[in-house]
Write a structure and sequence with these properties.
Alpha-Beta Plaits, 4 strands, 4-stranded antiparallel sheet, globular, 158 residues, alpha+beta
Amino acid sequence: MEKTLVIIKPGAVQRQIAGEIITRFERKGLRLLAMKLTHLSNEILDDHYAHLKDRPFFPTLKEMMMSAPVIVCCWEGIDAVAVVRKMTGVTNSRNAEPGTIRGDFSMSGSQNVLHASDSTENAEIELNRFFQPQDYCVYTKNDYQMSYANDELKISVS
């Protein structure tokens, strides 16, 4: 099974839509392995968004990400990174398709309600940034047989 990081951003926490976002991932059949409400520091944001540090919007992005708590989640499933990215929608929410999380809950390019890892490599790096091994709650998800075909489960279940 593949793991991915989702950060529910301050705007979604303030608007009290985090539960609806989490529910979408649950209904899709993904397994929640870790979750915490936290404030992000300057240092963590500099590290997490290092690839954007030279962009003109970076200071505004950092300010927004520190304006209120975020909810950091680890989701697991077959092709979890791609599944979550598709559910999330494109970065600029005005261009996000209806039915995606950003398409349904956001109108902004930066106040776009969540961050999702963009590759399995980045998911591993990002998860290690926010979670320690003891933060994960590994459990048997009883409905996997309803979410996946038996041949998929034989290949993917860890």
